[in-house]
Amino acid sequence: MRARRARRMSAWHLVLAPLALCFALPFVWLLLSSVMTNAEINRFPPALWPKGVDLGGYRYVLGNAMFPRWFANSLIVASVAVVSNLLLGSLGGYAFARMRFAGSRLLLGLMLATMVVPFQLTMIPTFLVMKWFGLIDTLGALILPSLVTPFAVFLFRQFFLALPREMEEAAWIDGCSRLRVLFSIVMPLARPALATVAVLTFLSTWNDLSWPLIAINHDTQYTLQLGLTTFQGQHHTKWSAVMAGNVITVVPVLVAFLLAQKTFIQSLTSSGLKG
Amino acid sequence: MSTLPRALTLPAQPAAAQAARRAARRRARQERSTAWAFIGPSVVVILGLSVVPVVWSLLLSFRADDLVTPGRWVGLDNYRALAQDPTFRTAVGNTLLYAALYVPLSLVGGLALALALNRRIRLIGLYRTLVFIPFVVSATAQGVLFSFILDPEFGVANALLHQLGISAQGFLADPDQALYLLVLISLWSGVGFCVVVYLAALQDVPPELVEAARIDGAGRAQVLRHVTLPALTPVTVFLLLWQLITSLQVFDLIYVTTKGGPLGSTTVIVYFVWQQAFQMFTAGYGAASAYVLAVALLVAGGALRVVRRRQGRTDGGVR
Q1: Domain range B82-318, its CATH number among 1.10.10.10, 3.30.450.150, 3.30.360.10, 1.10.3720.10
Q2: Rounded mean pLDDT of chain B?
């Protein structure tokens, strides 16, 4: 059976290969055009294959534009958000899963209810709150609202509820503090939940455009997404540079995805289905 | 303790019980403060940046406010003006058209692709990866890439059409094409999500059921229609809701590619809200339109949940 499958090509390749190619072609074009010269692009019809690898676009983007700065900004915002969601999300989730205190149900319900509030409804007052804190035009305005999401708290809570209690109780009776129980006994078991929260937080903060667009005006504080779209607006004839910038914006996500494809897909499918 | 005379230990017992009770109470109190320390930061951030803004937005929607100078109370004027604003009506129409195309196409396309990808042949992992990859790329990157591909002068799309002998198109600069092209771009990136969700659900369709139907003489189409699709219903409802909410909130892609144009043909509700609040500085008006969108989203979500529950009940009744 197996040997036959290996020898005979399935007819499905004739359907699937062109389809898969459709999804891949825009990326191929992205890469190709980022190493073309502007002369190759700015003629009609444009070249479909570069004559050689021209790194002028990358040089321009890394030298003249602020892409390195924007990259660092994006990295700072995304990593702080990931670490803090893991920390605050697990702390909150653990309290909701294991500890009894007055009002816990009400609070959890309220937090869950906020998950259905669309961003557009909160964006204007959130802008005003950030202005009041003096955070507009700083990375703080991007970090503060993404420090912890109700989704992270809820996901950790659900995960902890499914864990057996016995070990934790034994440790607790032995006099371990809740914090130590959480970090030395529960967290090592919570790898899947940690991975899911990390992946989704990274994706949503790295890829976000709308909030940085509102909260940031000064180009030293841009994130990559905001920088890329502004850069495109200002350089619409320097397409190879724009595409080089686009490659720089996309590559971190693609590398992360290809390295941890299974985790990404599991996180993305489970996140919605459980909600 | 054991060395002490009996007479001394006996009266001490009630005190010990009291001490134990006190210790338990102390422990409960300690537990409560630990719990609050654990959830405190989350409560402050989440409720502070959602409940407060939700109420604030509502108040704002009854005011004329430019975010700079103090505003004034105008009652329902913003909502009345919205009802008569042709730009807002266009935005609602565009959003509905976008959703009406994107949601069903992404579901049907996702299911078809998932069925095609649900087999064990060589390279299937590569095919699945390629179909899914656009989903993790930001809408900004997608928008920048496609405004280049679809650029009327320098884009590769027109170059290809030229070689096929078709005249150059305006694409995103053409008010009759722009919205449909945005739907296509969203499908390119969004269908992968439906595919992986459907693929995961297809693994859960009980193989005994499929086999039983086969033995009973059902053909492939019949198995699909009477066994596979009914088993996928919960997932389909979830995806329907998810894609609907996503499509009603589309913004990033439009900001990057068309900025609502040409001639307002791609102005969607969120773009309208953003424009009112942060470009025209009519924050009260923007807040009112955001409230209209939020209520629409709630109604859509609620309606779907009701349908789902009713479906569950009739299914249970039949069984």
Answers
A1: 1.10.3720.10
A2: 87
